């Protein structure tokens, strides 16, 4: 094995990233594994790190390899590793729990009090190799393409959001047109939601929402969101709102269109502290609010595998662009177009 590898690093506390050579990481713990990355995909968190926004400035320590969504093959294992072996195809649960806090000890590892995130708090996967604990490896069927394996982590975000919201046989409105919202459309349909109403802004992405199975799509640039949803639900609103953007106006819409006794599930992360109508939108409606963070370990991963392996949801319409890792800059720029004419961008690694 060579001593160095291609990697994308945040080398300076400034906007941008550097495609460079870095040492191949070594296994230091007997419970660690070395993974040969085959495909990785760009997440919204990676865009924050690339742009060097306020959150990144307070969280990221440079130099660091970032990225956290991947599919790869086990190349080496530590001496105490027993669950995976060399040659296994894997993806990563990118939240590394401590294992001893109150949350971990009560089956809530996904919201560990001392959570560490791959590609945020430690070196990530925009590289040819990564070292992680065996405990966060998810074994994939070897027939699953690496590019699909790489999107299981965000697909799991969508799965957790939908699964917690009791959507079967219910009217559902999904607000947002990013990749996770698009995955949620397909999953909600597979779970029996009827109808699935999807709200988006960008035409290319609205087309993806249609391909993923939305019964109705609403463009915020051409329609009144609240009125359109009310017209489609006889003035009552929907049973379930999945808010995937974090935008204050989208949260406002969601609380207006959820019917009395309905469920508002919050996945999107606001940039600041949003003002909401707690009285009219929640209290007097008797509405339920659910907060979603990450994925359940590993309940959600089993659900993802079942859905993908059964073919009930085809995530491929969401993957619109592919680049080799060496062309990371072009790949990242594709995600920043004003018209957002892309879905998920996947990077391939030789």
How much helical structure, as a percent, in the residues?
25-40%
Overall mean confidence score, pLDDT: 97
The best one-word shape is globular
pLDDT < 50 stretches: none
Give the number of DSSP strands.
Answer: 18
Return the CATH class of the largest domain: Alpha Beta
Give me the CATH fold name of the largest domain.
Quinone Oxidoreductase, Chain A, domain 1
Radius of gyration over alpha carbons? 20 Å
Strand content: 25-35%
CATH architecture of the largest domain: Alpha-Beta Complex
Alpha-carbon distance between the two ends: 14 Å
How many domains comprise the coordinates? 2
CATH superfamily of the largest domain: Medium-chain alcohol dehydrogenases, catalytic domain
The number of helical runs is 12
**What string gives the helices and strands in order?**
EEEHHEEEEHEEEHHEHEHEHEHEHEHEHE
Account of the 3D structure:
The chain has 350 residues and is an alpha/beta fold. The chain has 2 domains: 182 residues, Alpha-Beta Complex (Quinone Oxidoreductase, Chain A, domain 1), CATH 3.90.180; 135 residues, 3-Layer(aba) Sandwich (Rossmann fold), CATH 3.40.50.720. Helices cover 28% and strands 27% of the residues. Strand 1 and strand 2 form a beta hairpin.
State the gist of this model.
This protein is an alpha/beta fold and about 350 residues long. The chain folds into 2 domains: about 5-150 and about 315-350, Alpha-Beta Complex (Quinone Oxidoreductase, Chain A, domain 1); about 155-290, Rossmann fold, CATH 3.40.50. It has 12 helices and 18 strands.
């Amino acid at each position: 094995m060579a001593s160095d590898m291609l990697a994308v690093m945040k080398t300076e506390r400034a906007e941008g990233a550097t495609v460079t050579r870095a040492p191949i990481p070594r296994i230091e713990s007997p419970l660690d594994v070395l993974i040969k990355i085959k495909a990785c995909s760009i997440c919204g968190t990676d865009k924050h790190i690339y742009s060097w926004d306020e959150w990144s400035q307070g969280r990221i320590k440079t130099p660091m390899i970032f990225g956290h969504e991947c599919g790869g093959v086990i190349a080496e294992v530590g001496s105490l590793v027993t669950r995976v072996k060399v040659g296994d195809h894997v993806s990563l649960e990118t939240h590394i729990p401590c294992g001893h806090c109150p949350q971990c000890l009560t089956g809530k590892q996904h919201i560990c009090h001392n959570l560490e995130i791959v590609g945020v708090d430690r070196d990530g996967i925009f590289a040819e190799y990564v070292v992680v604990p065996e405990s966060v490896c998810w074994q994939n069927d070897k027939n699953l393409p690496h590019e699909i394996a790489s999107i299981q982590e965000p697909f799991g975000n969508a799965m957790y959001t939908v699964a917690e919201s009791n959507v079967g046989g219910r009217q559902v409105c999904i607000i947002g047109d990013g990749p996770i919202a698009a995955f949620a459309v397909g999953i909600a349909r597979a779970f029996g939601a009827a109808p699935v109403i999807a709200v988006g802004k960008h035409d290319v992405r609205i087309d993806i929402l249609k391909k993923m199975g939305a019964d109705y799509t609403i463009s915020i640039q051409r329609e009144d969101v609240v009125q359109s949803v009310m017209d489609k639900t006889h003035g009552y609103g929907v049973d379930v709102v999945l808010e995937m953007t974090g935008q204050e106006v989208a949260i406002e819409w969601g609380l207006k269109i959820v019917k009395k006794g309905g469920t508002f599930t919050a996945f999107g992360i606001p940039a600041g502290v949003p003002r909401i109508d707690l009285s009219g939108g929640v209290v007097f409606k008797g509405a339920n609010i659910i907060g979603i963070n990450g994925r359940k370990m590993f309940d959600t991963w089993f659900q993802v595998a079942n859905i993908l392996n059964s073919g009930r949801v085809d995530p491929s319409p969401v993957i619109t662009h592919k680049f080799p890792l060496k062309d990371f800059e072009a790949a990242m720029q594709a995600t920043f177009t004003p018209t957002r004419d892309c879905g998920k961008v996947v990077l391939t690694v030789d």
